[in-house]
């Protein structure tokens, strides 16, 4: 009996009990669909969170916070550390920043803004991928770039109430409205020593404006100055970063060049982990989005495994119907089995026929269940956000997926469904091979 004959025999028998077979297939499809939809919730939330993290952060970026010595004490990063990082294989660029430890005043004609000033090494910033919305990168020490929201703070100096009561922001009529590129800013920094207050004015030229931050809630009004200007401020104040309230005589290591914020950019994602491992071995405190993704993926892997396990219970329940269907099929087809044995059919062939029939029911149910699961997933992603926003009046993040069905989930679910249905048909199939020929023929007569 070849494969085609077996398939023909199975299809003929299914047609005789099409209603019962349909109900069994329906139960299997419901179980498979439940398994896929339930697990898709874990996949959907993971996809949304990971995608958001990848969009909001640079995946090749590694933040380095400091170095831990043998005694467990942290020290800030220096040029020696930068040189070590630069010599590491797989490093594309290293940015280093320091923030002036006071709030300078930036003046342009009658307009003023009190915002933070941050020093940066512009060649490395450009190499790391810093993007501008307008202008160019600085080329000499007195050229600066400003944050995207800097103009929201550059306003005319007046005693009038310039804030909007509703938004809390400066009213448009008081803001600087002209082109800022090419204009000269006067940065005023302060020095305090024993109640003696002095100021220093440094002329800076704006040559660029940074791109808008990817996160809507982030406001960047900083002025990014050169490292040379930063050192001039330190020389003037006699304190690290121009910090106020510190006596210059009490400052140690005045000439030590430290960096508050250092970021390493790998050439590609594959090089991130080797660089992080090297930094960990050298006792540097680091953070990268890859580490965060590992933890997130681990949590979601456990959650998805749990959801798949719960969904498998539904498939197992559906397999009870397959077991009953196949048991009844063996009983009803006892005469046919007797005839097959009488003409010399191998018990192995008879067993294969019934296992194939249960597999056919399982495969058909899995296919239907998968199609239904995709339809449910689409409706959930389309309708659930609308319901939540209308009922709970909460605005959900853009692009949030409640359900996501990757190919791997379909393969896992169909595999589980087939495995369970095959196991359900094994016992009835074995029973079919044990039917006595004489009893089966006598029943036929």
TrEMBL record:
<feature type="transmembrane region" description="Helical">
    <location>
        <begin position="298"/>
        <end position="323"/>
    </location>
</feature>
<dbReference type="Pfam" id="PF12704">
    <property type="entry name" value="MacB_PCD"/>
</dbReference>
<dbReference type="InterPro" id="IPR003838">
    <property type="entry name" value="ABC3_permease_C"/>
</dbReference>
<feature type="transmembrane region" description="Helical">
    <location>
        <begin position="360"/>
        <end position="380"/>
    </location>
</feature>
<comment type="similarity">
    <text>Belongs to the ABC-4 integral membrane protein family.</text>
</comment>
<dbReference type="GO" id="GO:0005886">
    <property type="term" value="C:plasma membrane"/>
</dbReference>
<keyword id="KW-1133">Transmembrane helix</keyword>
<dbReference type="Pfam" id="PF02687">
    <property type="entry name" value="FtsX"/>
</dbReference>
<dbReference type="GO" id="GO:0022857">
    <property type="term" value="F:transmembrane transporter activity"/>
</dbReference>
<feature type="transmembrane region" description="Helical">
    <location>
        <begin position="21"/>
        <end position="45"/>
    </location>
</feature>
<keyword id="KW-0472">Membrane</keyword>
<feature type="domain" description="MacB-like periplasmic core">
    <location>
        <begin position="21"/>
        <end position="234"/>
    </location>
</feature>
<protein>
    <submittedName>
        <fullName>Acetoin utilization transport system permease protein</fullName>
    </submittedName>
</protein>
<feature type="transmembrane region" description="Helical">
    <location>
        <begin position="400"/>
        <end position="423"/>
    </location>
</feature>
<dbReference type="InterPro" id="IPR050250">
    <property type="entry name" value="Macrolide_Exporter_MacB"/>
</dbReference>
<dbReference type="InterPro" id="IPR025857">
    <property type="entry name" value="MacB_PCD"/>
</dbReference>
<feature type="domain" description="ABC3 transporter permease C-terminal">
    <location>
        <begin position="309"/>
        <end position="435"/>
    </location>
</feature>
<keyword id="KW-1003">Cell membrane</keyword>
<keyword id="KW-0812">Transmembrane</keyword>
């Amino acid at each position: 009996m070849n494969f085609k004959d077996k398939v023909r025999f199975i299809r003929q028998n299914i047609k005789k009990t099409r209603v019962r077979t349909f109900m069994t297939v329906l139960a299997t499809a419901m179980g498979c669909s439940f398994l896929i939809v339930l697990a898709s919730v874990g996949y959907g939330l993971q996809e949304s969170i990971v995608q958001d993290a990848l969009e909001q952060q640079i995946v090749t970026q590694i933040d380095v916070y400091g170095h831990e010595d043998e005694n467990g004490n942290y020290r800030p990063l220096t040029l020696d550390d930068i040189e070590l990082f630069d010599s590491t294989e797989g490093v594309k660029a290293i940015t280093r920043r320091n923030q002036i430890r006071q709030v300078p005043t930036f003046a342009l004609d009658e307009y003023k803004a009190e915002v933070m000033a941050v020093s940066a090494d512009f060649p490395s910033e450009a190499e790391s991928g810093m993007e501008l919305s307008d202008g160019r990168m600085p080329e000499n020490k007195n050229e600066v770039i400003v944050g995207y929201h800097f103009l929201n703070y550059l306003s005319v100096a007046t005693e009038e109430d310039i804030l909007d009561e509703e938004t809390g922001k400066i009213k448009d009529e008081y803001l600087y409205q002209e082109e800022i590129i090419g204009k000269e800013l006067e940065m005023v920094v302060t020095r305090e020593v024993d109640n003696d207050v002095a100021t220093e004015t440094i002329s800076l030229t704006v040559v660029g404006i940074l791109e808008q931050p990817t996160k809507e809630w982030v406001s960047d009004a900083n002025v990014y100055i050169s490292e040379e200007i930063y050192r001039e401020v330190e020389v003037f104040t006699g304190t690290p970063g121009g910090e106020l309230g510190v006596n210059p005589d009490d400052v140690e290591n005045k000439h030590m060049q430290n960096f508050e914020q250092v970021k390493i950019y790998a050439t590609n994602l594959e090089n991130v982990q080797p660089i992080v491992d090297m930094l960990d071995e050298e006792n540097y405190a680091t953070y990268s989005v890859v580490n965060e993704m590992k933890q997130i993926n681990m949590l979601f892997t456990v959650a998805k495994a749990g959801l798949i396990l719960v969904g498998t219970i539904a498939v197992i329940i559906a397999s009870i119907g397959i077991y009953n269907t196949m048991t009844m099929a063996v009983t009803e087809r006892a005469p046919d089995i007797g005839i097959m044995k009488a003409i010399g059919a191998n018990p192995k062939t008879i067993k294969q026929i019934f296992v194939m029939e249960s597999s056919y029911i399982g495969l058909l149910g899995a296919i239907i269940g998968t199609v239904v699961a995709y339809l449910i997933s689409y409706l959930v992603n389309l309708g659930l956000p609308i319901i939540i926003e209308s009922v709970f009046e909460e605005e959900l993040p853009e692009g949030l997926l409640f359900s996501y069905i990757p190919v791997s989930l379909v393969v896992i679910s169909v595999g589980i469904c087939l495995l369970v249905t095959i196991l359900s048909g094994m016992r009835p199939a074995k029973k079919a091979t044990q039917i006595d020929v004489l009893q089966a023929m006598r029943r036929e007569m």
